TrEMBL record, chain A:
This is Leucine-rich repeat-containing protein 49. Subunit of the tubulin polyglutamylase complex (TPGC). The complex mediates cilia and flagella polyglutamylation which is essential for their biogenesis and motility. Transmembrane segments: none annotated. Residues 372-405 form a coiled coil. InterPro entries: Cilia_flagella_integrity, Leu-rich_rpt, Leu-rich_rpt_4, Leu-rich_rpt_typical-subtyp, LRR_dom_sf. Its main location: cytoplasm. Part of the neuronal tubulin polyglutamylase complex which contains TPGS1, TPGS2, TTLL1, LRRC49 and NICN1. Interacts with PCM1; TTLL1, TPGS1, TPGS2 and LRRC49. The gene is Lrrc49. It comes from the Eukaryota. The lineage of its organism: Eukaryota, Metazoa, Chordata, Craniata, Vertebrata. It is found in: Cytoplasm, Cytoskeleton, Microtubule organizing center, Centrosome, Centriolar satellite. PANTHER family: LEUCINE-RICH REPEAT-CONTAINING PROTEIN 49, PROTEIN PHOSPHATASE 1 REGULATORY SUBUNIT SDS22-RELATED. It comes from Octodon degus. GO terms for cellular component: centriolar satellite; microtubule. Residues 435-451 have a biased composition (Polar residues).
UniProtKB/TrEMBL annotation, chain B:
Keywords: Cytoplasm, Cytoskeleton, Microtubule, Phosphoprotein. This is Centriolar satellite-associated tubulin polyglutamylase complex regulator 1. InterPro entries: CSTPP1. Regulator of the tubulin polyglutamylase complex (TPGC) that controls cytoskeletal organization, nuclear shape, and cilium disassembly by balancing microtubule and actin assembly. Regulates the assembly and stability of the TPGC and thereby modulates polyglutamylation of the microtubule, which antagonizes MAP4 binding. It is found in: Cytoplasm, Cytoskeleton, Microtubule organizing center, Centrosome, Centriolar satellite. Belongs to the CSTPP1 family. CDD domains: DD_C11orf49 (cd22959). Residues 298-318 have a biased composition (Basic and acidic residues). Interacts with PCM1. Interacts with TTLL1, TPGS1, TPGS2 and LRRC49; the interactions link CSTPP1 to the complex TPGC. Binds to alpha-tubulin. Residues 279-318 are annotated as: Disordered. The gene is CUNH11orf49. It comes from Octodon degus. GO terms for cellular component: centriolar satellite; microtubule.
Amino acid sequence: MIPGKYRSVSGRSANNVNCGLHLVIQTSSLPEKHKVEFKLHRDTPSFPGRLLQHDLERNYSSRQGDGRVISPSPRSKSSCISSTTNLTELYGLEMKTATSSLSAFGDSSIQTPSKARIRQGCHSAGPNISGDHINLVSSSMPSFPILHRSSEEKILYSDRLTLERQKLTVCPIIDGEEHLRLLNFQHNFITRIQNISNLQRLIFLDLYDNQIEEISGLSTLRSLRVLLLGKNRIKKISNLENLINLDVLDLHGNQITKIENVSHLCDLRVLNLARNLLSHVDNLNGLDSLTELNLRHNQITFVRDVDNLPSLQRLFLSFNNISSFDSVSCLADSTSLSDITFDGNPIAQESWYKHTVLQNMTQLRQLDMKRVTEEERRMASVVAKKEEEKKRESQKQSLLKEKKRLTINNVARHWDLQQRVANSATNQDRKESASPPQDQDCCQTEGSTVSPLPEDTGAVDSGLSSTFQGLSVIDTHLVEVDGDTLSLYGSGALESLDRNWSVQTAGMITTVSFTFIEFDEIVQVLPKLKMKFPNSLHLKFRETNLVMLQQFNALAQLRRIDQLTVDPQGNPVVNFTLWKYYVLFRLSHFSMQKINGTEVTQNDMIMAERLFGILAHIASSELPQYRLISILGDVRKKQFRYLLETKGKKPGIVNEENNDSKRLVGENTNRATLNYTTREFYNEKLEDIKEKKKFCKMYMEDLMKEATEINMKNEALQKLWPQMFIELVRDAVIEIRNKNSYMKLCLQQITDQK
Amino acid sequence: MLSPERLAQPDHEYLAQRHVLTYMEDAVYQLLENREDVSQYGISRFFTEYFNSVCQGTHILFREFSFIQATPHNRASFLRAFWRCFRTVGKNGDLLTMREYHCLLQLLCPDFPLELTQKAARIVLLDDAMDCLMSFSDFLFAFQIQFYYSEFLDSVAAIYQDLLSGKNPNTVIVPTSSSGQHRQRPALGEAGVPEGVEASQFYQCLENLCDRHKYSCPPLALVKEILSGVQRLTFYGFLGSLSKHPGVNQALGALPDKGDLMQDPAMDEELERLVVRSRLHRTPRQHRAQEPGALGTQRRDKLEALERAPEPSRWQPE
């Protein structure tokens, strides 16, 4: 701290002897040009404790170094200034070239002064106002002392008066000092500003470290340019209406909760509100000349209006409660601001703090007392660019997410509608007691999917939401590839399996999840799934209307399944006690690892076999051959035929092979007869059967009619035959009874033939 | 062939009554369906197999419901197949819901109607609490009555409702009228009247019904036995005792007695073999390439089985 101070000083005051400074205050606003010259001399080795006690605390000046250079003057005997601290103020205003501002450290100064030094300081300040030279006489009014100075004093310091550390509890009546320009009441116990309204030429009034509770009694001091009210008990900024020429206003160390009643101070250049109780910053309109604003050690959470300060160069916000850049975003709009501090705020702890600030406030030259380098600026802009990209990316992501969510909602709605229609259809078919709970379920899901939609879209920008709405109406399905998972929502999503998937993507996908798709529709694309995603090992079903055990048969045609997850939602089959065992039994050839997230154990497998093994056995061993073939389907049919042929040729060898294969895979084939045809196909099949049966029936009826007719004729013949036979015999006997004539007749016939 | 009955009626009527036509038609249908395959090994072989399987009762496996319920023999065969296939489920002691039993039925007959299962469940659960769990044997025996005597029970329901509402049922037996309409009525009955109907009167009606009924009925003697034990009874009370009566089960001949319901030594043996095999081949993935080869074996297996053990349920003309 101290070295910094020196450093700053050294450059500036190179031509002054040992930090002696020459100060000129010039104010153009006054009608006659005031020119107050102060000579400052500074005794460097005896760096004043007093400065540490309170001057730092005040911190009027950002040019802290300079301020310190000036402030020690009370100790320097040769000082020609009565109230040095005040001058620091003025001086600070003029200083524009100083580079490093250390003022941020100012109000972290030591609070407990060393007594000795105070006294010493008190003494040393004496040249102009040691107790001997000033007589405080009690006036006619009982409570107010009246001040008189000796005439030499008056001549020597005609325009200044210092009443520092005089244990004053009230302002004395100052008579005959109308020409006074500087008045110092530092370190007294004054509770009220009084008796100075006659000092109308007063430029400088220092009431630092008193017990003033309200700003008052200043309305006549129109010339006042520096008003120092630090370390008092002021709760409210008020009664400054006439002080239109005010240049410096120091209100640090008070109890002010709000910035107010200052908008008329268009010449104010320094405003110090450090160590107050401000919770936010606003009402800064009209402070057109303000170059420095000190707001350290408050409880500020947000800052507004700073962009309405056209001259503001330095803003100190250290040790406040600012946690986001958004709450101080107006700073970015200020073109004049070149120096700012945020240290001691939550925001300064953030990793993005520096580059965010630099990026948003390109005009900045110093941040937290450190010069902003080009390098840092570049870094900030790079980081900011990255951040921007990230943000855009995440926005895109969230956009996609939102779109996805809406689409899923939409799909869900479609699904529910569809289910309800289906339900009502079945209800009409059979008015059974089982349907009401389903209906209820349906309503619940409907309610939950629809209701969040309006409020959610309300949160999104109106423009976005309208596009979303548009999308949600159009999109009735959703396909999503996320890492190794392919998620399909809505039956339309199944068409995506026809797409040309890159080998890489297809190879990567190990999990396929179906949601809001009728299981029967899934069954139809299973062969495609098998082809396109040869590595899919994990199937997930949610809201797919799995209601029957036999539906699981359809999954057997896949190449491999390691895991199966069937969400109970929309899949009533999961409520069955046996479903897991049936799956294990029917899909035993996959040696599944997990079902619904639970590891499959050896015992599960055995249990499954015990429960359903006989079914498979009966199904495979007791079906007539022709049925077996027709059930197993075409592919197997051919193989079977081939087997039949080879069996005929080389029975011995084939038998052996068969024995082998029987031992190995018999258990798998025997459940191949348990397959699943989707309802639609099954109904078609039933229609087909009906047709064929009709034909068969007709055919059989014809056959039967024919058969019964033949039978009847046969029976009739059987009845007639005995009589006929007798008649025939009788006729024959009659014919040959006369042997001679018969022979003659026969001969005659023979000759005739010849 | 020339039984006295045979001479009493025209040929086609006789054939129809004995369901010969049904099976002939089905055989031709199957032939039509599988004509390519059948031509491989001969028509005579096909017919042999067909009628063999009809005799064994395996012809109904995985067939459509219309065929399964077409003849009493088919029904009995289906009951028996159901028992054989899922006896293990009952043996395991699981209590299942109506819907789950329905699923099991659908494994054997994909288009089995839910209504029948529901009616069977109603017999077990006495017309209330349809979501309750049922034991396998309870369900099976109730289902047997419901499935085998389906049409008879519909008529009985109609009679019962008529009796309840005080009509003379003998004049109006309309088996075609849906039982759903009838079930509404008892609510209107006076509160003071005890539940159900007079057993003796009910029997009279049933006797009448059995005489005229063209579908299968339970033996009248057994019905009499059941009804004579009580003064009054309800419809589901009647069905319940009918399903639990061992005589009815014997008369039907599809299932073993209740005590022996879980016994099927031949199948148990087979199952043990299967379990051992599944244990040996916990990782059958490696063998799948050879899977189709097993078909011939299955076939041979089956033929052996045929030679070994004559099936208990032979087809007998009634």
